[in-house]
Batch of 3 targets.
Target 1
Amino acid sequence: MGTSSVKKLYYSIGEVSRFTELEPHVLRYWETEFPRLKPQKNKAGNRTYRIKDIQMILQIKKLLYDDKYTIEGAKQRLASGAEGDSNQLRIQFSGGQPKRAIESIQDDLRDILSILDSWNQ
């Protein structure tokens, strides 16, 4: 079994920074603003991010950078979407464009897989 099939349970702030294309200081700041973003710390005091933390970061990034929410608006949006299973993806289609929305999601997932694959090489 090669090392490329091994999935990590925890990622450092540097790895998450490269993956999300966000500076470490931005990640640390978001921890102070978004209560649901709380990476654990190891014995040395370094942040250890799990997949769910990275998913939350990507969701916050989308709200702030793509959807142009303010910090307060993003907090409210996350709070309103907090009910139910946090791992469930909710998609609202407006204007009858579900195919385009699904293709966009597929493109985003391919990009994420590409980044993860580059880490394992």
Target 2
Amino acid sequence: MNTLRLAWRGLLRNRRRSLVTLLAIALGFAAITLFAGYTKNVYEGLAQQAIHAGLLGHLTLNKRGMTREGKLDPGRYLFNAAEIARIKSLLDDEPHIELIAPRLTLSGLASNSRVSTIFIAEGIAPQAMRTLQKGNIIKRLDPENPQTVLFSVGLAELLGLRAGDTAQVLTGTVGGQANAADVTLGGTFDTGNAGNNDKFVYMPLAFAQSLYDTEGGADRLTLLLDDDAQTDPVRMHLTQRLNEAGLDLEIHTWRELSDFYNQVHDMFDMIFAFIFSIVLTVVLMSVTNSMGMTVIERTREIGALRAIGLRRKSVLKLFALESLLLTLLGCASGLALTLAVRYGVNAADIAYTPPNSSSPVPLLVSVDATRTAFTFALMVIVGTLAACLPALRAAKRPIIDALGHV
């Protein structure tokens, strides 16, 4: 007896019910995979924002204890010029490292001679900044003008400054004394984060070192890799190599340093799990209801099949196969719907402004192959198992009772 043919005929026997159930599966599958594709695009965008636009690079090296006690005793945890040169020489032959950039963070007051406000500055070599950005949105520091800096848009507006204007910055040195200097505003940039868009400054590393009164010093080294996927393997390898060289350093990945990325990632993961559980429940109930009604309507048929020698496990196999075919068709239809909607959304050129952002971003949907495959497999398994309980209940009925069922 051809069980597959019987299962297919069973689906076609009540086309309307099968079609409604198939649509429920398809729409549920499309909803999950579209949201998974959207979140993947968000994750990728946030990663590029952190690595390149945020200038975090892939890895950050600092002396052990810098993140905990560096503000209390900054001089103790700064790299000097000799230490930076030694680390660079150790890592020169590493195949995946494209850039090793010394960095120096300082803070203080910025003034336009009338009003003052706080600022947080990042000192970085102009060429290193250009390499880290890889064509992203931040303007370039001018290597020919060491006292030309970049202000975030909000900070420039707060002080009423435009490109070419002069401002004053006041900061503390590594020894605790005050140090001030005139700077020229070379341009403005958008941090992409409303929380720090009115206080951020980029300045050449040499100028930041002179303000901080540290000769060739840096509080950390930023590493840019040639492949995002190499972040964790390179970190493990460098940790071992630097320890063997007697250097007690901490190595942080960009994920560990980007709180915003981690918060958004966790939030979307929780939303995905919530949506997934709801859709899976709807699909399970739809398939269970459909197969339950099918089994009830075909109780006499089951009795007849049992009477001609079909065993209980074969009855169970028949209805499980019907449910499997229905779920497979539903998921395949959902996948086709996903690709069609994805194409339409990406072609529509839709933009929106996310929370805590100062500029709009495009609404795009990627293909999350891992979550799509997981959803496909789980729906097929759940859909198939949903038919087992009503089919098993019908198969256990005595043949006489099944044949007399009305």
Target 3
Amino acid sequence: MKHNVIDAIMVRQITRRKEYRELRDIQTASDLQEFQERRLKELLLHAYANVPYYHRVFGEIGLIDGKAVDMSKFDRIPVLTKDILRRFTKELVSQDYQTRGWYCDTSGGSTGEPVRVMQDAAFRKWSESVNFYYYKHILGIEEPIVKRVFLWGSERDLLKGGAGIKARLKNRVTHTMFLNSFRMSESDLELYIRKINAYRPELIRGYANSLFELCDYAARKKRRLHTPRVVVSAAELLTENMRQVIESVFNSHVFDFYGSREVNGLAGECTKGRMHQFAFLNHIEVLDPRDQPVGANEEGRVVVTNLTNYAMPLIRYDMGDTVVSTDDACSCGSPLPTLRNVSGRVGDHFITKNGTIVEANYFGFLFDFRDSIRKFQLIQEDYERVRIKVALRSDLTAPDRDDIEHRIRLVMGECEILWDIVDDIPESPSGKHLFIRSLVWR
């Protein structure tokens, strides 16, 4: 009974928010278009009035006239690259940011080019509402209150040797079992299988590679895994082979989720297998190398305008990913537009000599909030040798270097760490961003 009351309160807190009610009331494609255009104009007016960088840029192209926005000139706004974001960070912050419950985050290391961004309380509320909307209206479950397992990474747990009391209490109240996937030995995988089977969750969410490794191990060792209602793969590229293995072992459909720390949710897969854009949170453009829109069923770069973060607006921000544009309506009935074939976030696991798997995302977190590093690549050359290539903006301090090395050895054990200072780190011949690369991974 106690949990039923807590569950009801958690759901009510979200469903009573004005943000969620606005999303819920969008029923048709025309509703969505009207909503997005209104939100986009409000954002542009705010940015022109409060953000020095955009005041200058919008003025140069004549986008704003009083309180009128000339949307025919929207595509003349220069694409915001990571390099521009770094160079003009202070000018991209809204002058009223202190009134907005702001906090800082980074883009993460999946692209090898971490950047720092400022976000606000409204962005967080909208993101939580969109997440609830996706699970409830597209996947058919109320995510905050179902029994769930997160196969996710926590560097803090590795550093401290486990989750703190506060985190464990929160997990208990929210029916959440957290299984740390940043480092998974064979004994960890056996333990995770036992825990999942005993807990019997309705939802399992995890990194694509971590879900695959768990299911691949279970298949090879002929271990049975509980079948949840929903499996959600996130944060990494979900290949067709990975999907087949995960679905076969869990005996459940895998739903792919596409998001980023800079702008949160971008798209999520529905029960018909289509990726739906969260167009009420982010305005997505798919552009060719000349920054022109691609045609239907053509591949292009993902350029995003987040509609909710006013502390540091990201307008026409280049994500560093590619997708295939579509204009098809989905038979699931959702008014949200679709896209397919998300790619660009690629990284290998590292593996220790005793067979322990170290999740690629762990290494991306090592470079958060290190302003001297412009771009990086980690290469596992042998079980006991790791090479770090870095392109720098300024000298790398000894404490930063020592901290990175300490955190690598925390998961890899004693190993040789070599540093290469380079001018740039190009893409691989295939065009993929292989910034976490292992030469010993199978």
